[in-house]
Each structure stands twice: as structure tokens, then as C-alpha cells.
Write a structure and sequence with these properties.
mainly alpha, 3 helices, about 0% strand
Length: about 150
Amino acid sequence: MPARFVRGLLWCLLLMPIVLTGCGGGKKQEQQQKQQSQKQQQGKQGDVVLQQQMKMYQDIKKSEREQQEKIRKEEKKQLKKLQKDQQKMLKRELEFQEKVRMGSNPWAGGKKEKQQSKQQGKAGTKKESTEKKNKSPEQQQGKGKEEKKKMPGG
């Protein structure tokens, strides 16, 4: 029996490391699986972080575009206003030069005086034409001489 006992003991000693290594290998696999799952979770967390950063970047770019668009709209409004002001100024300058050319007082009032002067001019010509019809040609010539005397510098 002692020989059998020694053989059994030797077999146990030989098999024990093999069995323990096999079981330990299972632990290693579990550890590797845990590490892989942790890596995957970290990768997923990294993906989530990257997605959040990408969304923040897109939001920032969108707000920048909106601000630039607002600035462009304001600049267009200002440009239109400046163009209108420039047109008004050019129109005033043209009216001033027209008054100077016509020989009237350029600093006198605006449109109302022009309309009044036109109406008076028309009314004056109508009165003169009716008076000329009523008077003889000799009287008209005499009147013309009197008007020349009344006019200054004439």
C-alpha cells in the first residue's frame, strides 16, 4: 500500500498544478473579458464625450453664423439708409443748382414758392393777353414803353 499511496500522491502533485493552471486560466479569461468590457465602456464614454463636443461645436458655429447674418442685415439697412440720404442730398444739390441757373434766390423756400410763382406767371400772362385784346395797337406800344421805364436797369 505504501507504493500505491506514493503513486497517488505523485499523481496528485502532478495533476494539481495542471488543474490549478486550468482554473486560473478561467480567471485570466474573466479578467481579460472585464478589461475588454471596460475598454469598450471607456470607448463608449469617449464616443459620448466626442459626440457632446461635436454638438457643442456645431451649436457654436450655428450661433456664429446667426450673428454674422444679423450683422450683414444691419449693414444692408445702414447702406440703404446712406443711399437714401445721398439721393436726398443730390436732389437738394440739383434743385439748388437749378435755382442758381434760373437766377432766383437759391436760399428761398422750396416747392410751394415754385408753384406759386408758376401760378402767378400764368395768371399774369392771361391778364396781359385780355388787356391787349381790349386796347388798340398804339396803346399797347405806349404801355410797353412805360413798362420799360418802370423796370430798373432798363
